[in-house]
UniProtKB/TrEMBL annotation:
This is Uncharacterized protein. It is a multi-pass membrane protein. PROSITE patterns: SOLCAR. Solcar repeats lie at residues 22-104, 117-199. Gene3D superfamilies: Mitochondrial carrier domain. Keywords: Chloroplast, Membrane, Plastid, Repeat, S-adenosyl-L-methionine, Transit peptide, Transmembrane, Transmembrane helix, Transport. It is found in: Plastid, Chloroplast membrane. The keyword Nucleotide-binding does not apply.
Amino acid sequence: ALFVGVYEPTKQKLLKLFPENLSAVAHLTAGAIGGIAASLIRVPTEVVKQRMQTGQFTSASNAVHVIASKEGFKGLYAGYGSFLLRDLPFDAIQFCIYEQIRIGYKAAARRDLNDPENAIIGAFAGALTGAITTPLDVIKTRLMVQGSANQYKGIFDCVQTIIRVEGPSALLKGIQPRVLWIGIGGSIFFGVLESTKQLLAQRRPKPTQQSKHD
């Protein structure tokens, strides 16, 4: 919700600033800005989720308490740099692909797109973006779950260690389920997003014609 709340108005402002042939830049930039805003909530949530999946904690509240007491507030933002490394490109690329395909399809069809078409385009954008950003997701996950162990010194050390110990293919671990899952998620997300935008547009009161004396 926070992402969309930032992305949509930012996109509209940037589209007015950029010429039509640079609309992709506007979509990329708006996606990145929306991602930065959403990361303030996403990162602590992701850290707690990843730690709980490793069996370190019994509940989310317990995870927050222990992480904050042992690692400080910054522990809740462990791997923040790698999170931005993955999610900023992900958000920017996914929304750019979706918006550009939608613009081209709409121009070719010369009509508004229906819900199934929006969902299909969303699925394609999500799946393609998921594949492209899989290595970034692997790096982000490794850095977030290491906790205070500090197995990796940073993003570049993490990449070098993974390649040296496990081979380059390790950076693509989980790509198939990731592409499938994000493709399905993209279909649902963009389908619902466009339906909601249309519904809100229909309910928005139409401007009344002002009288000559106004």
